[in-house]
Specification:
heterodimer; A: 132 residues; alpha/beta; Rossmann fold; 6-stranded parallel sheet; 5 helices; B: 220 residues; Alpha-Beta Plaits; 2 domains; 10 strands
Chain lengths: 132, 220
Amino acid sequence: MKVVIMGCGRVGARLAGQLDASGHSVTVLDVDSYSFRRLPPGYKGKTLVGNGIDMESLKKAGIESGEVFVAVTQGDNRNIMAAQIAKHIFNVPKVICRIYDPLRQELYQTLGLEAISPTTIFTDVLKKRVES
Amino acid sequence: MYIIIIGGGRVGYYLSKALLSEGHEILVIEKTPGICEAINDELGTVCLRGDGCEVSTLAEAGVGRADMLVAVTADDEDNLVACQLAKHKFKVPRTIARIGNPKNGELFKKLGIDVTISSTNIILEHITEEVPTHSMTHLMEIRDRGLEIVEVRMSANSASVGKAVKDLSLPSGSMLFLIVRKAQKPIVPTPTTILMVGDQVIAVTAPESEQALRTALRGE
């Protein structure tokens, strides 16, 4: 599959490395080229310096032919905006975004975005551990 | 009207000041404590410290009863999310977003934001107005109607100078409705009005007919 990942932080870099190792065609986008140091040594995918909320950068990253778009920068709003561009402007079939804020995650989920809140998930994990 | 302003920077501050003087009820939501204090010192207690993209802050601000929310932070993504929350979570009737990247206008409209204002585009329009090589100036967009109001300046070599309005081959989507002539009252053109050098012709047009209108008037 052709995957575009926006944000090369710990999650973005790890996901890119694993998808690349599984044989997918991966492009990672980050505003800071220094972030690409996080990618694993054997990474064969593409890297691109650019802002994912800029349509030109997304085009350069090959979003027009992308099958999956993942937004995992540190900024909830940036992820939300990029995901909506991917979904509504470029019609990417699968768009996933991280939204730390559970309330925003809930709202955008109802608006049709596939949104994941690490806050909710991690809280649930902790609660289970505490109570076990 | 009760108007919520997201972002207390320069734009937010002067906007609040102007709207307050017009008698509106204003609440500014601003993250930075120092800026928030300064606004409250100067304009009275109108600034709430908080993140305008947080549902809890918006609820505290009473966004549910707001007539309008205007997001004027420096970041397009923050303005988008603030407006979307207001629209979808709090059913605010009118949302207005400032955008830095003019290309985001189309996206924001598609995502349900009622009005977008691009300071870049506004500055650009004023610059083209000052540059004589640009014979056509955009004065205003008639929102949601797909029309715009433009000004065309007549120079000595313009194709339509000396011709009557009825003899121009104007595109069907365009209409001349005002001629501003030096040292005269503005003229509402009739079919027999003759165009002269120096005339500022104000026309309403569909954007796709813009080029044809320019050709009809200027011969370009």
